[in-house]
UniProtKB/TrEMBL annotation:
Descriptive protein name: HNH domain-containing protein
Native species: Pseudoalteromonas ulvae
CDD domains per record: HNHc
Annotated ranges, domain HNH: 136-190
Pfam family, one: HNH
Organism domain of life: Bacteria
GO molecular function annotation: endonuclease activity; nucleic acid binding; zinc ion binding
Length: 211
C-alpha cells in the first residue's frame, strides 16, 4: 500500500536525496523509469523515500509493487516509462527525416521552404523592423543576447503550414514563417507529425513554472 499524504514536495525531496546519495543497488528498477528533469529514477525507490519526508519512515520495498508505484506516479501526471515497450528507444533515438511520418519528400520540401533565403530574409527584416530583436517565438531565446556579435541576425525560420498541405508550387509568404531558435525548431519536428508552435509554447511555459 502507498499511504495517502505524499505530496509533490516530498517527491522532489526524494529526488534531491537520490541526486546526492545515489540509488542502492537493491533499489534500482527493473522495468520502469520515472522521468524527471531529463533523468530517470526508480519509481518505487522515489516513493519509498518520499514517504520518509511525508511521514518520517521510509517505505520498504515490500510495502507495494512496481506497478502500484508506476500507476501512483502516472495518476499524478508524472511520466513513467516501461523499458519493455521500447519507449526508451524513442527517447534516445536520433532524429532524422526517416522518422517523419508525412514522408521524407514532404519533410525535405518543408525544410527547403524554410531555407529559402529570400523569404526568410524578408521575414527577419520585417521582424527586426517591428520589434528590434530576433528572438524565438516559442521560448524567447535571442542569439545575440547569448552569443554577442556571432549570433547577431541569426534565427531559424519554421514553415507553419502543415507539411501535408505543402506542395512544390505554393509560394511561401512571410506570415507562413515562425522565427524560432534551433532547439525549439528541432522539438517542433521531433514527433511523428510536426507540432503546432502554440503547443510547444505551452509545454515550454508549463515546464518553466513546474521546476
Ligand atoms: Zn526557442
Ligand atoms: Zn520547421
Amino acid at each position: 500500500m502507498i499511504p495517502d499524504g505524499i505530496e509533490e514536495k516530498h517527491l522532489k525531496l526524494a529526488i534531491q536525496e537520490i541526486i546526492k546519495d545515489g540509488i542502492p543497488v537493491s533499489r534500482k528498477s527493473v522495468h520502469y523509469d520515472y522521468l524527471h528533469g531529463n533523468k530517470r529514477y526508480p519509481p518505487k525507490y522515489v516513493i519509498s523515500l518520499a514517504a520518509k519526508y511525508a511521514f518520517g519512515n521510509e517505505l520498504s520495498s515490500n510495502d507495494f509493487n512496481a506497478v502500484r508505484a508506476r500507476d501512483y506516479l502516472r495518476s499524478r501526471g508524472h511520466t513513467v516509462i516501461d523499458r519493455r515497450d521500447g519507449a526508451l528507444d524513442v527517447i534516445v533515438s536520433d532524429d532524422d527525416e526517416s522518422s517523419f511520418a508525412e514522408g521524407k519528400e514532404k519533410y525535405r520540401l518543408h525544410r527547403s521552404k524554410e531555407r529559402d533565403s529570400s523569404i526568410t530574409k524578408k521575414a527577419k527584416a520585417a521582424r527586426l523592423k517591428d520589434t528590434g530583436t530576433l528572438s524565438c517565438d516559442i521560448c524567447d531565446f535571442d542569439f545575440y543576447n547569448k552569443y554577442g556579435k556571432l549570433g547577431l541576425g541569426f534565427i531559424e525560420a519554421h514553415h507553419k503550414v502543415p507539411v501535408s498541405e505543402l506542395d512544390g508550387n505554393t509560394k511561401t509568404k512571410i506570415s507562413d514563417l515562425a522565427l524560432v531558435c534551433s532547439n525549439c525548431h528541432r522539438m517542433l519536428h521531433r514527433q511523428k507529425s510536426t507540432m503546432h508552435i502554440s503547443e510547444l509554447k505551452k509545454i515550454v511555459e508549463s515546464y518553466a513554472t513546474s521546476v
